[in-house]
């Protein structure tokens, strides 16, 4: 017997809720901020708008559906099912945080604070939720297939990201590795390597692209092409700087072999969910077969 569709509402703890968790009461939080020349009022107002939006979206879920909620910090422990429709209620970045845990489920982005969020990925208002959910599972529901980037280590560890994957040291040390394969590989010492998608081309990837005054064309979000940049490569008798940027098409992979005690790879700023890499391991980064299916 087929399961009824399930709406999974993804949200994150608000700044106001975090203040209350730290200070205990509204009054204590207000006093703390006032002593630093800030007011709690706007933070509380955003909290109430977000809470109201989440309640309105929950009420818009069809009565015949199941429903579940997951907070951003718990995404790595939540099991998404093939029958899920994922409703991200919050900011653009929350869509990226969620994407790596999905496998083709449709995603609806609901903007809880129009005008404050860019609305690149959370494209819809709360009032659109009922209509979007009703049509989400219909054939021809449409939407975009946004390209994702993946890193696969030689011990089968796999990492997905919507914006970018960073490979580098876990702190402020120097990353040492060999980049490339075979005789063309180059030993490098740097601050790490960034591999980004067209969705990520509005963020960290774009800042590196601009800093380099790169002649490479930034990819579009649905284009199966990635750009990569080495951050602050250091020239020395043992390390080079000739392989510091490039693009990856289709099945092409950027290969990196670790020559440090420990490097990490993480996606979309989620450092707590990093892949650990040790001396001698190889990781390959490229376009993922999995894409984010974003409705609307």
Automatic annotation (TrEMBL):
Protein name: Inorganic polyphosphate kinase
First and last residue of the signal peptide: none
GO BP terms, alphabetized: NAD+ metabolic process
Gene Ontology terms, MF aspect: NAD+ kinase activity
UniProt xrefs under InterPro entries: ATP-NAD_kinase_N, ATP-NAD_kinase_PpnK-typ_C, NAD/diacylglycerol_kinase_sf
